[in-house]
Design a protein that fits this description.
It is an enzyme of class 4 (lyase). Its EC number is 4.2.1.40. With 424 residues, the chain is an alpha/beta fold. It contains 14 helices and 15 strands. Helix 1 crosses helix 2 and helix 5 crosses helix 6. The structure holds D-glucarate and magnesium ion.
């Protein structure tokens, strides 16, 4: 095909929905479908690249607006991608985080440009015959470790049959869930999504996990559901038990007040969510570990920059996730491979996705001993399955969901459910 191999000729933006489990968190419960958006970029000579991001209405509308600005962009000029995305969004920068209100302070420009950054890197890799990890500085590890992400959950969505994971509403249920996750994926660290039950119940769950899996690093993440006082009490109680305590309380100052008085390391994906947050968090020693996430830090290259800054300021680096498909897992794996400073196993919601639902062939993303081998094929190493994309897009159209709303879904079954913070 004639034309410039690196110049963008076409961008498609496709919302999709995939089945999700009733996973509980402090703002409610996951709905029966998780929403994502798949972007595909085609250059003038027909080379294609893909990216994946959130699926909410406002974000989708912004992605479409940004996509219109991208025709003619050279995929090697990612500074121009920033400029064009900024121009497309103009002053429209609030809301649309796609995370049910849990990570609200990140930059809209960063969130919108992220899937295009990934897709451009995918094309760059294909053009020169190298994997994306090489474009990020080169893989320092052949495979990337992930942690088993445990959730309190209902037995099934109301009105439907119990799902194959069943209920996990107490320590025994979580231990069973962890056992299955470890047996299936080989994870060698565990994270519990907390903020669901009173802190003492969640502390008991952590103790049960510790007793059952004495050697596995454990993390607890109540998504800022606790006051600084409660956070301090739990942090002290679990001192030496947790690898880190993630976002026990709200804000850079709240976290700093806890961090100053406990030996338990604090981590965040809520109070440091953009480069603007780094200086105050470092100055106040709010956290010891930052969870990066290319979906809201502005793409893969930005996360490499974040990693360097974490290293400079003596901060550990981990990785955050939301419900996601294979394009995101591939991107996370290339990133995880290319940041020497990655100090912890990355989060992933992968076990909470049906194996038969994806927009790429996931064969290249198999877990072994809790790790995903870094794809070595050019680009991301995964290709879009257009039939599967069409199916998941149809599912999006049919399911009726347009914005993630964990709170609204919970309130259908518990009208008294409150998201007041702190809850405890
Ligand atoms: O999937 C969830 O319910 C999580 O609570 C997610 O939305 C969070 O953003 C995330 O996993 C976290 O670590 O905060
Ligand atoms: Mg978190």
């Amino acid at each position: 095909m004639a034309g410039n191999a690196a110049r963008i000729a076409d961008v498609t933006v496709t919302p999709v929905a995939f089945r999700d489990y009733p996973l509980l968190n402090t703002v409610g419960v996951h709905e029966p479908y998780a929403l994502r958006t798949i972007v595909e970029i085609t250059t003038e000579s027909g080379v294609t690249g893909i990216g994946e991001t959130y699926g909410g209405t406002l974000h989708l509308e912004r992605l479409r607006r940004a996509a219109e600005e991208l025709t003619g962009l050279d995929v090697w000029n990612l500074n121009d991608l920033v400029a064009r995305t900024t121009r497309a969004l103009g002053p429209d920068t609030t809301g649309g985080d796609g995370m049910s209100g849990m990570v609200t302070g990140s930059s809209a420009v960063d969130r919108v440009m992220s899937p295009f950054d990934v897709a451009c890197l995918d094309i760059q890799g294909k053009l020169i015959g190298r994997p994306v990890s090489d474009l990020l500085g080169g893989a320092v590890r052949p495979s990337v470790p992930y942690s088993g992400y445990l959730f309190y959950k209902w037995a099934g969505h109301p009105g439907q049959e119990d799902d194959d994971w069943g209920a996990a509403l107490d320590p025994a249920g979580l231990v069973d869930q962890a056992r299955r996750m470890i047996d299936t994926y080989g994870f060698s660290s565990l994270k519990l999504k907390g903020g669901v039950f009173p802190p003492d119940e969640e502390t008991a769950a952590i103790r049960a996990l510790r007793q059952t899996f004495p050697d596995l690093p454990l993390r607890l993440d109540p998504n800022a559901a606790w006051s600084p006082k409660t956070s301090l009490r739990v942090a002290r109680e679990l001192d030496g038990v947790l690898q880190y305590l993630e976002d026990p309380t709200e804000g850079i100052d709240g976290m700093a007040s806890v961090a100053a008085r406990t030996a338990t390391p604090l981590a965040t994906n809520m109070c440091v969510v953009s480069f603007d947050d780094l200086a105050p968090a470092v100055a106040r020693a709010s956290v010891r570990i930052i969870l990066s996430d290319h979906h809201y830090w502005g793409g893969l290259r930005r996360c490499v920059q974040l990693s360097t800054l974490c290293d400079t300021f003596g901060l550990g680096l981990s990785m955050h996730s939301n419900s996601h498909l294979g394009i995101s897992l591939a991107a996370m794996t290339h990133l995880g491979a290319a940041v020497p400073h990655l100090s912890y196993a990355c989060d992933t919601h992968w076990p909470w996705k049906q194996p038969d639902e994806d927009v790429v062939d996931t064969e290249a993303l198999r877990f072994s001993e809790g790790r995903v081998t870094v794809p070595t094929a050019p680009g991301l190493g995964v290709e879009l399955d257009r039939d599967a994309l069409a199916r998941l897009h149809q599912q999006y159209l049919d399911c009726g969901l347009r914005d993630r709303d964990d709170t609204g879904y919970m309130r259908r079954y518990d009208s008294t459910f409150s998201t007041k913070t702190p809850r405890w």
